[in-house]
Amino acid sequence: MNAPRLEVDLSKVADNARSLVARLAGRGIAVTGVTKAVLGAPELGRVLFDAGVQVLGDSRIENLERLRHAAIPARLALLRSPMLSQLDRVVRTADISFNTEPAVIAGLSDAARDRARNHGVVLMVELGDLREGLLPADLPDAVRATLRLPNLSLEGLGTNLACRSGVVPDAAKMAELSALVAAIETTFGIRLPLVSGGNSANLGWALGHAPVGRINDLRLGESLLLGLDPLDRSPIDGLHTDAITLVAEVIESKVKPSVPWGRTAQTAFGSVEVATDRGLVAQCLLAIGEQDVDPLGLLPPPGTRIVGASSDHLVVISDEPLPVGAELRFFPNYSALLRAMTSPFVATTFIETTRGKTPRLAAPVRQSVPASELAGGGTTDCRADAATGAGPRRAARGGAVGP
Ligand SMILES: Cc1ncc(COP(=O)(O)O)c(C=O)c1O
Fold first, then answer.
1. Strand partners, 219
2. Is 357 a catalytic residue?
3. Measured from the CA of 98, which atom of ligand 1 is nearest?
4. pTM to 2 decimals?
């Protein structure tokens, strides 16, 4: 089979989606399924819709266009504030978009009028994470302006936490959002149908016992795909954490010293390499690199360790020598998944294995590969877990090492 490749087990993602949809429904909360980590793959969108997810959300209009062309009957939501240069595409494809800028909202109204459509607007509120959002004091003006504009309907309010700054979406933050909803409704004499409380990091709060207040929607990506709680990357009870794996192929296998020799300076990615002396080691090169994946976000199979990476190579040492042509299977974190899915050199394969079987729970074990052992690295996505690699995952998870 083609390598490198991402294998997405749709039956496990479907299990995760059914489980979260049912558990959150008990709290009066619907799920918006976030598809950006799979680039809006229609296969995934269909599975989520069939599992009871009625809105699909993505930060990129291109991904929503893929879903729209596949005629999946879900509502489509653009989660990142629309670019002024893309407003016509946004109103053509997205039913709703999440907004913070008056100029963009006015432009959406014009674009929707030109297309003789109605477009739904969710106003995002800043509650402390310091990424997107209107400051609460500016909310009434934004509501007033949106209500006055033709071809727009104000769908509701939303917030996003635990992304840029790691601010926890706890009961206090959610109560703050509910209070803002109530204040806006009273001031303007309207009812806001949608209150989108956040992302997968909200699940601890949402599945607990605190009152949900007015929150009736969560936008879930990482939890559906990887089964992990972004607050600490611990496995979420009852979800599969092994739905997505990354397979890469060995292209060189040698016994080599573990420490470089000669004068050393910066590596290809500008870091200074500090190698640990382990004597002679079985080292192999895999045909995948920084261009394709965030190496810091990969959990390698048992008996192997990632010790370096450059643009096109991942350097791995193993307890036993591996033959050229062998495939190694890694568990990617969200950051590694995003980059691998976006690389044109990594294929994506959708599989179905265990529909309906109860997932085994993952033991919370932290990956022990120190970041300093990796060449380069670093990552920019809000879901990155750069310091700790793939985060807590099952140690004996059985990533196969074999041809
Ligand atoms: C605005 C917004 N909502 C929701 C999500 C989904 O977050 P998560 O993958 O933690 O569920 C993201 C990020 O992907 C986002 O940017």
1. 32
2. no
3. 1
4. 0.89
